[in-house]
Amino acid sequence: MYPRGARPNRWQSLHMVCKYRDHHKPVYPLRRLATATERGHRAKMRFTKSFWDCLETVATS
Question: Per its UniProt entry, which superkingdom is the organism in (predicted)?
Answer without folding.
Answer: Bacteria
